[in-house]
Fold these 2 entries.
Entry 1:
Amino acid sequence: MIAIYLEDDNGKLHEYMLFNPKIISHSVENTYLESGEGCLSVDREVSGFVPRHARVKVKAFDIDGKEVTLKLKGLPSIAIQHEIDHLDGIMFYDHIDKENPFKVCLITQHEMSDRKNTGLLIARCFFRFLKKSDLF
Ligand SMILES: [Zn+2]
């Protein structure tokens, strides 16, 4: 079971209590929080980017046992991936590149439209190397 309670960038409240949530599809595009991620179950700060799917479609059951499907993007999408990972025993820092904590593989919107135009099937990755001091 996971619980999410947060506001997205538009001030919309996302309040979910979900049982057996499963990601049934996700975007090719990735995203990450520039501030990195934190966790109430981790009593220390772990620096580094945590690559996530930009958008996810999740199937789950609500408290009444009714099946629900959610399509999420932005912060709620990141949060639900973080929470579903917990159910699988995966912590956010497991996704951080050990050698380059601030490296991410980003497929941007621009690249997505390029890909459609050229019909390329192989997505290119953009690697960004940033120091933590660049972030604030
Ligand atoms: Zn957590």
Entry 2:
Amino acid sequence: MNRRQFSRAFLGALGASALSPRILSAISALRLPLLPGKGGAMADSGASSHRNALPTRAHSRPLDLPRINAPRLHGWLKDLSRFGERPDGGVDRLAFSDAEIQARAFVRSLMEEADLEVRVDEAGNILALRPGRESLPPLMLGSHIDSVPAGGNFDGPLGTLGAIEVARTLADEGVETRHPLEVVVFTNEEGGKTGSRIMAGEFRPEELELVAAAGCTIREGILRLGGNPEALHRARREPGSTAGFLELHVEQGGVLEAEGIPIGVVEGIVGIRRWNATVHGEANHAGTTPMGQRKDALLAAAELVQAVDRAATSLPGGQVATVGRIQALPGAPNVIPGEVRLSVEIRDLSMEGIQEVFRLVRREADAIESAHGTPILLEEFYESAAAPTDERFRSWVEEAAQGLGLAHRRMPSGAGHDAQAVAQFAPVGMIFIPSVGGISHHPDEYSRPEDVEAGVDVLLRTLLLADERLS
Ligand SMILES: [Zn+2]
């Protein structure tokens, strides 16, 4: 809906539909207030600080803005999907590949059309700035456009093009924000969140020599993108340098679709801990060793697998625990397994929650160990810290969704995102929209157009709430 349609609909709702189109367009040309008045139907709880916010039936001020331009956004998504497109409808747009470099040029052109000032930082991140009217640190929004091999067209592009659409809508509507706005395209998200981790100061120099999926080293890749691997410290952001970060993303799971809810309010990116478990039994002849005299490591391991599942489900909360790998040795049909190696992974929004599940696993492992006479060793080999989102951002996402009449629910993100690294130096918020069938990192990854539009509308409104309320 454009400003004129909006005014017409609004005045129509007020019974003012008899106004001529000329008057309507004159009203539309007025930036603010459209219908000033105290005590009138439109006088709200407070005056808008947004010059051209339009009064509506909603209560909150920034929520009064018109919607994003949906056909334009869908056109961009389609255009971007051509870079690295596959015959099966998916995309091969690995970070640092020719396809990604061409796609970045396309995205830059969209940024320039939206009146943004574009640059590439030392990490190869694309940063596009829109000035604010106050001297404040920027509010950042964006995502990534690289894909996994045989990936889909929504993981990354949604948050990136959605952010540009937000900036473009603000430009079209002549809205000035208090904070400068910074639209970002992060470098190599799928291959290790290179760009956002460089910003957060988490990137280790030796990672520059790692070979990326596209075949070049990360160092060569950053050079290809126009970055400077010798001066990565200059891309680093200190706490306070960025007012906040908002990322819109597809859920990559099936919760929202199953519940028929269009907006997920992300509570954070879960922390992960992984252990190698080794069950020590006694290998022996499978024919001559009576059942009562065995120390079957696989039998004990089978109980451990169940214990891991029980540990996660016996506690309240959204924690998950998985045994994803198992190997029995020596691995012959006629030998009682003497040793079993398995992995144990636990994820939760809080690291204490993970520890609690692990305590239960260890306690059950002790019991299994004594019942079977099979010592169980649990050695941790991986840890990734949880990154909770900022409570203010969560409530603003909810307020924005409510203003649009969209159902929403709070939920964790089980997958990693750039927001996880950004959370080290700025408050972050994340918005999810449904993934059809819960499918992602696959050519069939798909989100319905109406959900895409709702997500970007919520992004726009959340950004304006943050702009108004963050100091
Ligand atoms: Zn992603």
